[in-house]
Amino acid sequence: MCCDEEQERKWSTPLAKQLFEAISTTGPVPLASYMRMCLTGDIGGYYSGAIDRSRDQFGAKGDFITSPEISQVFGELVGLWFVAEWISQARPKQGVQLIEVGPGRGTLMDDMLRTIQRFPAMASAIDSVFMVEASRELRETQKNLLCGIGSPATESKAGLHSTGKRLGKPIVWTETIKSIPIEPDKMPFIVAHEFFDALPIHTFQSAPASRSPAKPSDSSVAAHADAGAPAMEWREMMVSPTSPVATEPDPQPFRSLESESPAEFQLILSSGTTRHSRYLPESSSRYRKLKQTPGSVIEVCPDASLYAADFAARIGGSRKHPKPQPSGAALILDYGTSDTIPVNSLRGIRQHRIVNPFSSPGLVDLSADVDFTAIAESATLASDGVEVHGPVPQADFLELMGIRERAKMLTQGAEKSAADDIDKAWRRLVDRGPNGMGKVYKALAILPENDGRRRPVGFGGDVRI
């Protein structure tokens, strides 16, 4: 495309123009880079630099609605799950940390704290609440909810500090979980709800290797060459601009159901290997097994593995962060696959509709299916002191936690319209239909290793006193 055409091209958002300029300088970028800029970029990022600062991504007037926004019962049961873990882990009188990554508007943590408030001994054991949030606007929204509008706050190297209105405990906002020290005497209770699905993914496709001779160290390529089989390599899917004259670009395999504006970017297959394709698909035997099948496509999320390893180190200790006695728990609730590798799962969401993920950068939420098996693998490799339970369907988890009974309690004495709303909300959370939240969403728990002697509540176990 010529320079004059590009100078005249009208971009849908400032971020779209910035992306084009960056790609024009460096060439096509990995899908993960595109996602990162769209979600947390300084110029018009969906979460970190919204064009319209009064815009709310959540709720009926936003782009999507999450489980805590659907029903208060969801957050109450998550809070109760951590109470059960605190009881099962000998009820320590101090050192408990509550950590939430990607807290949204703070609704989930508010419901959790309201529930924990009813258990004074656990509430007293909590030292601090940590909210890991990259968006300045969302941090302010969370502070108003959890601490009160206009509540005083102080800044430190760790982040923003205030005092919660429910438990009177310190609440600290950090941009990254790395700002929270890993301390061997702490019991971290970590919750990640619809967090992992927003982490950037890399996509790779298996293709015949280039004609350049195999390196002596590449035993896989050499072995197949000796056997007469075509040597294969992983190529990376990259993002590049579409032609300015294309009125109906084809972003396959990510064709959207509805799109308000044409896609300005598209996926293309790299002509050779990239630094990511040479390393990431070799990080697990699950990926390596697919390499020799031409056209195999895999999605890999390195950030998810890093977070899972961090959770595991906090709970079970690691060589870098030894812990005399594993303690704590992590609860991950998200949508994704339980026994397969995600493929072609990238989606754009805007105003409660599926849209093209390559249209209107910064105005469209991007997400991809979570690879729960990869999370479990990363957690157990990172620490010998943890074990993983699940994933189980969200419907199973919530029903075992007592969602029916809690909803029934809320409807007693309520007006019919309110009771109907409560009933509709909880049933939506456990809907087992093909696309129902109870089936698509899953729960996974990371716990202190105990040789499988105890299963946690919600995963087939009970409270151990």
Structure description:
The chain is α/β, with parallel strands linked by helices and about 475 residues long. The chain has a domain at about 65-200 and about 300-450: Rossmann fold (3-Layer(aba) Sandwich), CATH 3.40.50.12710. The protein has helices at about 5-10, 15-25, 30-40, 65-70, 70-90, 105-115, 120-125, 135-145, 220-225, 285-290, 300-315, 370-380, 395-400, 405-410, 415-430, 435-440, and strands at about 30, 95-100, 125-130, 155, 160-165, 170-175, 185-195, 200-210, 230-240, 265-270, 295-300, 330-335, 345-350, 355, 365, 370, 385-395, 440-450. The strands form three sheets. Strands 2, 3, 4, 5, 6, 7, 12, 16, 17 and 18 form a ten-stranded mixed beta sheet that branches. α5 packs across α6 and α14 runs antiparallel to α15 (about 415-430). It starts with a helix and ends in a 17-residue tail after the last strand. The model is unreliable at about 215, about 220-225 and about 245-260 (pLDDT under 50).
